[in-house]
Structure formats: C-alpha cells, structure tokens
Amino acid sequence: YHDHIMCRHNLYARTAVLLVLLRLSVAQYEHLGYPPGYPYPEQEEYTAPQLDPDTPRIQLRLAGQKRKHNEGRVEVFYNNQWGTVCDDDFNIHAAQVVCRELGYVEAVSWLPSSKYGKGEGPIWFDNVHCTGKEKTLAQCQSNGIGISDCKHSEDVGVVCSDKRIPGFKFLNTLPNHVENLDIHVEDVQIRAILSSYRKRIPVMEGYVEVKDGGKWKQICNKDWTQFNSRVICGMFGFPGERKYNPRVYKMFARRRKPTYWDYSVNCTGNEAHLSSCKLGQAVLEKSNGTCPRGLPVVVSCVPGKDFLIYTQAAWLLPKQPLVRLRGGAIVGEGRVEVLKNGEWGTICDDKWNLLSATVVCRELGFGTAKEALSGGRLGQGMGPVHMNEVECSGFEKSITECSFNKEALGCSHEEDAAVRCNVPKMGFQERLRLSGGRNPYEGRVEVLVERNGSLVWGTVCSEGWRTMEAMVVCRQLGLGFASNAFQETWYWSGEVSADAVVMSGVRCSGTEMSLSHCLHHGAHLSCPKGGGRYAAGVSCSETAPDLVLNPQVVEQTTYMEDRPMFMLQCAYEENCLSSTSSEVPANTYRRLLRFSSQIHNNGQSDFRPKADKHSWVWHDCHRHYHSMEVFTIYDLFSLNGTKVAEGHKASFCLEDSECDEGIEKRYECANFGDQGITVGCWDTYRHDIDCQWVDITDLKPGDYIFQIIINPNYEVPESDYTNNFTKCRCRYDGHRVWMYSCHNGGSLSSETEQTFPGLHSNQVTHR
To answer: Which of 5, 60, 530, 644 has the most Cβ atoms closer than 10 angstroms to its Cβ?
Structure first.
C-alpha cells in the first residue's frame, strides 16, 4: 500500500514538472503572436447591459483622422449633441470600457493630446476613472457629465482590437436620434443565394447580412442606395458594384421568409467600413418585422484585375499604372509609390488617412483600405518624394487626382506612406498548412489536392525547393515573408496520413498568390528522394530585409585603372579577371573599370547571411571571411543586350559601414565578427578594394550598359527583389570611362526602362 501511495506521488510530481515544461516551451514563442485564423481562446458570450435608471444614456463612436476603422477620437452623444472625452486621468481601463461598449473584445492602446485631430462641441467627460468592468463609460467616475476644464487639444483617442465580441447586440438607448449614430454590429457578410454563385470563389453577389445578437439578419432594401453597396463591396475586397437581376431574388424571398434587421443603413459612399456609416431609420418598428413593398438587400460586386476569373476585359487595363505597392508581404499591401515625370517616387505620410488609402486600394483593383500606415512601416523607398499632405474626397479614380502639397520639404523616406487593402477571400489558405513546427510560423508544407474524386493532404517534393517557393507559401497562409526554405524536414513529424508526395517540380516567380499557381508537374509526379524526411518545409516571418544599391555612388566613383598582372595574383586566383588573363605574362597590364558599391538595407529586419559561421570562407585578397559566396554579379552589355565583358560573381563580407542617425552598427568583419547589414545602415565596398571592378582589357571603345545584381540567387529572403539590380549607361573611348543615368530596377517608367538592355526584373533571374 505504501509503495502504491509513493508511486502516485511520483506520478503527480512528474505530471506537474511536465506541465511546467510545456508552459515554458509554449511561452518562448508567445512573442511571435498567432497568425490570422489560428485558434483563439474561447471568448465569453456577450450579455446585454442592465443600466440603472439614473445612469446617463449615451452613445459612442470613433471619429477623426483614422488610419484603421477600429480606432479614433472617442466621441460621446448626449443631450442631442456629439462631444469628446478629455485625456486627463484616462487610462487603458477606460479605453477597455469604450472598446467593449462599441462591441470590440478589448482595447489595444489609447492616445492623448488629440492625436486624431481636435473634436467639436462639449467635452462631456473629464478625469475619467474606470475599473475596466463597467458596461458603459457613463458608469465610470468622472467630474460629472459636461463638467470639464479641458480644451479640444486634449481629446483622447483609442485603438480597439480587430476582433468583435461574440453575440454582441447593438442597443439603441436614444431611439429618437438614430440618424446621428454609427453602426455597431458583430459581423457583416455577403451570402450567396443563387445556386450559380454558391460554389464561386470569391463570393461576389448575394444578400447583405449583419450579425446582431448572435444571429444573421438581412437588411430591408427600402432606403438602400448605391453608396451603401459601394461600401459593402469595398469591405470585401471589390473596387466597385454593378447591377443585378432582381427577379430571381424576388422569387427566392417568396419561398423563404427573410429575417430582417431592425434598422436601415446610411452611407455616403467613401467610408472604408460599415462601422463608419450612419444608422438609418428603424424601418421595422411599424411593420411587424417585415419589409413593406421591399426585399432583402442584394449586392453584386466587380472584382479587380488580379481576381478576374475571365480575362477578356484585360485589354481595358492601362499598360502603365500610375500607382503601385512595394515591400508588402501579401497581395494588397505595401508602400505606396506613384509615377511622375517617368520616375517612381513615394508619398509622405503627413495627413495620410483611410480616405486617401482607400482611393489607392480601389485604383489598384482592391476594395477599401483596411489600414493606412505611416512612418515607413512597410520599408523605405528610394528616389523622390512626389506627394505630401494628400487629401482625398474618397471618390477620386486615382490618388493623383487628390489635392496635395507639391512641396515635400522636411519629408524623408522615414515617413513613406503605405496601405493594407481589403482583398477578396479566395480560399487559398484552406488548401495549404504547415505541420509539425514548434510554432504556427514554421513546419512541413502540406497541400490539399484532389485524388480519385476525394480531397487528400500530402507533402511537396523538396527537389529544387528554394526561397521563391517558400515566399509563396508564407504569402498564401498570410504569415508574411519566408525566412527559410528547407529541403529536409525530418525534425518536423507532420501528419503521418499526409506523408505521400502530391506535388513536385514546383517553380515559382515569387509573386503568385497560391502555390498551385506556380509551375509544377501536375499529375505526373517525379520525386526521386520521395517525401517523408525530404518533404519541403518553410519558416515565415512578419518582416524581411530589403537591399537597395545607391546608384549615385556608382556614378560618382567610377574610374579606369591599368594594373600590372604581378599585382593581381590574388585577384586572379579568385577569378576576378577575364579568362584571357591566364594567357598573358606577369609584366603586362589589365585594364579595370573600378567603382564603389554602397548597399542599403531599407527593409524591416536585418540582412543576415544564410550560411552558418563555421562554413564561411577565408579570402586572402580581402583578409577576412566571406559569408556569402555570391553576393553580387557585375556585367557589361552592348546596346543590343549582348554580354561583352566577362563579369564575375563577387563574394562579400557583410558589415555596417555607416548608419542613419540614431542607429547603432551591429555587424563588422574584423576578428571573425557577426556579419550582416542592420536596418537603416549600409555596407560600402570601396573602389580601391580588390575585385571591386570589371576587367575591360579586351573591350573595344563604344557605348555600353553596366549592370549590378545584388543577392542574385535569392539566397537570403527580401521583401522586394525588383530593386536588387542597378543599370548605368557607360561610355568608353579607349582612354577614359564615364558612367551616367544610373538607376535601380523599377525606379523608372517601363517605357524608359526598355531603352536599357539587360535585366528588366530580378523576379525571374536564374529560373
């Protein structure tokens, strides 16, 4: 009996230790957060607040210069008038009460000093003290409603979570002032009704339904307008709306009685989200829950160019867009760049808001803006800042039609504006998963395919699996950028039932929305090593570096040098000279085109070499270790695109030569130090370093194109590969050499770029 008791004690002790270890192992990945769609903890169901008769009846809204729909200046409707809340004594507990009263799960942060602009009207609350448990802001302690010594420069704002409270129900405590209130429901959807639309992805036509009190309800079309449809379509990733056939919907409504929401909707058409629209009149109060002489609201949306199922209308699209997005991880997000005078430039973030961001999103064929980002959040651009203090009405066809300040004085690329747009739900995420990883951002790649009439999960052959394929996987899952592509995944067990290879020969350009869009073998699989331990895997990251070469430095430092062969022995051994150098005596000269390379990291994370430190190679010429064997390629082309001088693949030691103000250097080559390029820093390879040249000994005088490619084999993932090459015009008269019109890839209009032979897009190099 004693042994039995001891055994049980040991079992409890071991179980406790295992639980502690499990919590610790999970905790080490908590900083990564969870990706969209990952299971969230259960939220408690919403219960409608029961207010005392003496509690002031108020309504809230978020207003001002918003950059997301779920943030803004806190405004209170009381005594027939909208007013604000003072930031004195306001804290996260008060913000929590505001957000939950509006139907959001929680508050993320709060902002003082009228960060969303100054409000108008009374300041209804001052010195607010909340515990965070109150059902309404009116229950928190304060000076008393309307008693304040604040100015509107102290108006407080909040940022609420994206997630809505399950079962949230809008309660109108001011029934006589409906037209002044914003819409607050748990969720919105377009539900396909007709059989011809039910199997289509994305859903483009159907009933507009709101979820209120945990139940989906239709909206009576009595006061519905085209502006309302425009907002709904925009929320679901569509740039516009179109007419539909109402007859079939009348027939459907007769067969199945709709359940109507109590209110109508009143949008102006430029809102980014339904929550910014006003409530219409309570249309059902006098009609016993019916919609007199009306039907449920139906919308039919127009997909953008990237989501067209049929491409007959592709000829209608402009050949050269005036706006583009760069540096984003997924479709519909990125730094905003505009084309002006044949050159791409950025927008300064002064006054940048959801209205302007939505104009950009619609122009590019997406829906409304999910978020307007500032401060170079999606990486810094190069070249000019074309627009500043942009102000749009929301109905412009292009951001270039909006008013703006042509003077961008004081604006730097640290203030580059960016957007995240609403895009159609294509269902790509459901056909791919990562399995066996330590956290949701890594694992063996498993895809869902059809085999013998049924859907099965399987692995991807890792032969030829590289960064570009991994990039597409991370994008498809909404997990950001690839940080690694793995050709062996024996350490990630994955699902045993999914061990079989179902996809092989995958080759991606890196821009695809789904792995199935990449080239692959189809049904004719070929994978000599098989799946299992050799299945493809990835790890993803929300951020990535972005290397960009400074073209002006190349232009300013170019010169020609005649150097004797006996001084080039080290460079000869490292293949930095043309092949004819092996046939000449040591007392002859080689003619070298020399220049400096200044390579900036404009991304969001440090550029680190892929190779481990123990595999770095010592280079006698430079007297340090090189962490990347092929970091740049130098080439010289004739004007018809023929390579005329033997370029070479330059290996580099990566370090921070200089940094922007306020950023500390982290990497150096000396003493076998860590190598890389910090965000906001640059690595300069000076013109007087060995191998920093092209051997032009055998070149005839004439006009040429000089080209540099950085990270040519995509060895290290970056947020943007299109800017990884630089081209210059080069003139050589036999005695002197000039470099001019140097520019980075993608910095000029396509018409101008076509006049430069050589590489036009680094996305398809070496494929």
So the answer is: 60
Q: How far is CA 90 from CA 36, 129, 226, 391, 676, in A?
A: 31, 7, 40, 31, 43
What lies within 8 Å, CB to CB, of 405 at 6+ separation is: 350, 387, 388, 389
Identity of the amino acid at 727: K
* Exposure of 39 in the CB half-sphere (CA atoms within 13 A): 3
Q: Which long-range contacts (CB under 8 A, 24 or more apart) does 74-81 make?
A: 74/98, 74/155, 74/156, 74/157, 74/158, 75/119, 76/124, 76/125, 76/137, 77/174, 77/177, 77/180, 77/181, 78/124, 78/145, 78/146, 79/146, 80/177, 81/121, 81/122
Q: Give the SS3 label for residue 28.
A: coil
Count how many Cα atoms sit within 13 Å of the Cα of residue 734 in the half-sphere of its side chain: 2
pLDDT at residue 734, as a whole number: 93
The pTM of the full predicted model, rounded to 2 decimals, is: 0.86
Find out whether 174 and 59 touch, Cβ atoms under 8 Å: yes
Pairing state between β 81-85 and 123-125: parallel
CB 291 within 8 A of CB 219: no
DSSP state, residue 43: P
Q: Which of 239, 326, 166, 316 is nearest to 745 (CA)?
A: 326
φ and ψ of 359, to 5 deg: -60, -45
Q: How far apart are CA 523 and CA 503, in angstroms?
A: 8
- String of DSSP letters for 416-454: B-EEEE------GGGGEEEEE-SSTTEEEEEEEEEETTE
Residue 610 tokens, joined: 């892929």
Residue with tokens 């990630």: 492
Cα distances (angstroms) measured from residue 152 to each of 69, 120, 222, 267, 632: 22, 7, 39, 27, 55
Write down the pLDDT at residue 269: 95
Average pLDDT of adjacent 10-residue blocks, the chain of 767 residues? 47 47 41 39 61 88 93 94 96 97 95 95 96 94 94 97 92 73 92 82 93 93 93 96 90 86 92 91 63 89 78 45 93 95 93 96 96 94 92 94 83 94 93 94 95 91 95 96 94 87 94 93 89 92 96 96 89 84 85 95 93 80 75 91 80 88 91 91 91 92 95 93 94 95 89 71 45
What does residue 568 show for φ and ψ, rounded to 5 degrees? -120, 20
DSSP string spanning 692-729? -EEE-TTPPSEEEEEEEEESTT--S--S-STTSEEEEE
Q: Which two tokens stand for residue 45?
A: 């169901």
Contact 421, 518 (CB under 8 A): no
CA–CA separation, 278 vs 266, rounded Å? 5
CB 569 within 8 Å of CB 590: no
Task: Determine if the peptide bond prior to 292 is cis (ω within 30°).
Answer: no
CA distance 645 to 707: 11
Q: Please check whether residue 166 is in contact with residue 43, taking contact to mean a CB–CB distance below 8 angstroms.
A: yes
Catalogue the E-assigned strands of 45-96.
59-63, 71-78, 81-85
Amino acid 758: pLDDT: 61
Q: Which two tokens stand for residue 61?
A: 């809204």
Number of Cβ atoms within 10 Å of the Cβ of 764: 13
